[in-house]
Amino acid sequence: MTDPKPSTNDILAKIRAKNAEAAAAEKPAAAAPSIEAPAPIGASAAEVKPAAPKGTGDILAAARAAAKPAGTADILAAIKKPAAAAPAVPAAGAPKSPADIMAAIRAKAGGTPAAASAAPAAVKPAAEVKAAAAPVGMSAADMIKAARSVAEGAPVLPKVVLPEKPLPAKTPAASSKAPAVQVERRSVVGAIIAFVLSPVFIAWSSFTTAFGAFGLGVARFMMPNVLVEPPTKFKIGPPNDYAPGTVSTKWQAQFNIWVVNGEVDGAQMIYALSTVCTHLGCTPNWLEGEQKFKCPCHGSGFYKNGVNFEGPAPRPLERVGIRLAEDGMLEVDKSVKFQKELGQWSNPSCFVGMT
Amino acid sequence: MLNPHPDLTPSVLVGLGWFYLVIFLMNLLWTIRSFKVDGEYRSGMPRASVWAVYTSILMMLSFYHFTYPVEGFMFSMPLAFKDFFDAYFSNPVLYFFLTIVGLWAMIQFREWWTRPTVAWVLLNCSLIFMTLSLTDYDFRQIVGKPDNVPIVAMLFIVAFFTWIYFSRAVDNDRRIAEGRPLFEQEDNEKVLVWPDLVYTELICMVVLTAVLVFWGIALQAPLEEPASSMKTPNPSKAPWYFLGLQEMLVYFDPWLAGVVLPSIILGGLIAVPYIDFNKAGNGYYSFKERSFAITTFLFGFMPLWVALIVLGTFLRGPNWNFFGIYEYWDVHKVEAANNVNLSEFFWNGLGLGIPKGSGVGDILLRESPGIILTIVYFAALPPVLGLTVLRKYFVRMGVLRFLVFSNLILWMAILPIKMLLRWAFALKYIVGIPEFFFNI
């Protein structure tokens, strides 16, 4: 009215105000001829929305339904509401299919008065006038404009008084004393068979089966027939291959161990250290010049004996099992680990004394 | 033969030509703007003339690099500066300290550095610093690595967006102080989705695609030799966006820095809307009205994330040692470090000797100073803070919200605290129980 180009919010605000007025004055009967909707109100309840419209879509839908459905979109918009409302009032004689509803709406929009008993739907008079005035093939912009002017102008959305109690939606359980004829009682076996053959059961059981098979497959994958890994027990040559005071990196690439011949607590011994950093599992490098293992990832440093002293590594490198085999060769067993912080380095299986 | 670290000198020589060309064009536009806007000196000479001289020098440098690229660099970073920089700035303590000071200065002098001319001068300084530093072999080998280029770009982008924020906020703060309407109300920037926004998005998509294609062609993917579980590259770096996390891992146990702290960062960011009771600054830029929230965010973002990414990318070299930006990455650089747990400090300091024994009770006794300290930090500090420093927030938030808020703040604070303790006292862990994989 005042604003030549009202926004959606403005329109909604106006519509709400109108609705409030209309509700307060209780005067829709004077303007609207067909307010008291009969029992089958599927279409009317939907088309004439008693509450404030919620969005532009509602307004457009109302305008279009009133104006004469020009395109598929209009019809759909008109259908949406009845279709949503219809199930709530499933009464005999109510328009059941969208097609019925559409027929009713078309009859309305064509200008037939609401009294037409074939289509028991209520129509807003103002909108009807608009629709009558509007040319049949009006454009979308015109429709919107029409909708806006309608929204601003007349109290377009009269209050629809719904019947106090619509027809009972379904036979309540209490009324079962009325003999439920025609209902056959199934046997227990029949009920079970029916359940087993139901789509829900089939879908969920096949899903469960497939998922279970997948789980079993994963479990099987964890136990391979063949392990393509270096053996955990292997010979690394005689002890005098490893000169006192040296760290041998020659098995690092193949077996992930360093072999150290060093002095620990006053005793000369050969031990094998795992090359896995105890911080986050990178492979440190042996720096001969600095006599330390240094991890390139976060800078952890370990002495020659494997004890951590710098960087974030929380505990010493792990020793693996080593022993002097019967043939005089050193034999490393990587399947066992010895951790200093747990006091396991005193175990004679993790070093070979060199006296 | 795949060489993961080729000599970048020839490409940088030509690339600098393009670099100078871009700076030249930028400054050409700036000179025009300056001529229109800046006015004249007292002598009648337009202020733009200074920019004109500078711009023409850039043009000549660009020509030089395009024309005689084999003869080397015309200007190089002075050796004295490089030595000075490497000698005094290549340590993490000073680096971290400077980032904090930088954050403070950024907030303190926001009215100064958000002025267009000042910001433009700062941008030019950083660009010229880049071009001069690229003449240093070690610098360009690190910065010019194809996977480090996005980090350089990120720095400029972060600086740009920070500048946008601060300039708008300073403007609005001034408006609020003077009682004028906000910039967002006065200069309403609302536009239509169609066509304005959709067209802008289309143009952005096309430009972004073009940039990515050009980037993919111009900079080769940094492929290296096939991975091997036996050999870890030295240095071994995470993707650039995780380098902040990798730097955190230097100071913390993996489960803390890799699992707990990232989860708390995510959870804390999610919790921010529920913690924040300050309704001001909603829909407009402002610093004064949200100074605490913004300072806290910037502290977590600038020194504790962006600066750590830069630290991890450019300043961490072989063996994860700290290197100056012009320093050769020597695999055998020795950094003396001997980290000690708090329990060793405590018991040896008392002259009692570290409690021996491997029972649970012995271990708990050994680590009791750290455990008590940690419990006090997380349990006693929030009430103390709520009753003293953060009293205002406690009153506004209520007990539960304040506890969540103060614990998040304390969690954020443990990173710099631990870093400082490591640097100052070579402290390894406050609670160190390797027996249970529990280290704080």
Can you characterise this structure?
The complex is a heterodimer of chains A (355) and B (440). By secondary structure, chain A is an alpha+beta fold. Chain A has helices at residues 8-25, 28-31, 42-47, 56-67, 72-85, 98-109, 125-133, 140-152, 188-196, 199-221, 252-255; strands at residues 233-235, 246-248, 257-264, 267-274, 285-287, 292-294, 301-302, 308-310, 319-324, 330-338, 352-353. In chain A, strands 1, 2, 3, 4, 9, 10 and 11 form a seven-stranded antiparallel beta sheet that branches. Chain A has a four-stranded antiparallel beta sheet with strand order 5-6-7-8, with no helix packed on it. In chain A, strand 5 (285-287) and strand 6 (292-294) form a beta hairpin. Chain A starts with 7 loop residues before the first helix and ends with a strand. In chain A, 32% of the residues are buried. Chain B folds into three domains: 1-74; 78-182 and 236-335, no CATH class; 342-439, no CATH class. Chain B is built from 18 helices and two strands. Chain B has a two-stranded antiparallel sheet with strand order 1-2.
| SSE succession of chain A | HHHHHHHHHHEEHEEEEEEEEE
User: How far is it from the N-terminal to the C-terminal residue of chain A, by CA?
Assistant: 108 Å
Largest sheet of chain A: 7 strands, antiparallel
Are there runs of chain B of 5+ residues with pLDDT below 50, and where? Answer: none
Number of strands of chain B: 2
Count of discrete alpha- or pi-helical segments spanning 4 or more residues of chain A: 11
- As a percent range, the share of strand residues of chain B is under 5%
Shape of chain B: globular
Kindly state the percentage of residues in helix of chain A.
25-40%
Tell me, rounded to a whole number, the average pLDDT of chain A. 72
Poorly predicted regions of chain A are 27-50, 82-95, 111-135
What is the makeup of the main sheet of chain B?
2 strands, antiparallel
Question: Compute the gyration radius of chain A: what is it?
Answer: 43 Å
Oligomer state of the chains in this structure: heterodimer
The helix-and-strand class of chain A reads alpha+beta
Tally the helices of chain B: 18
| Element-by-element helix/strand order of chain B | HHHHHHHHHHHHHHHHHHEE
How many domains of chain A? 2
Number of domains of chain B: 3
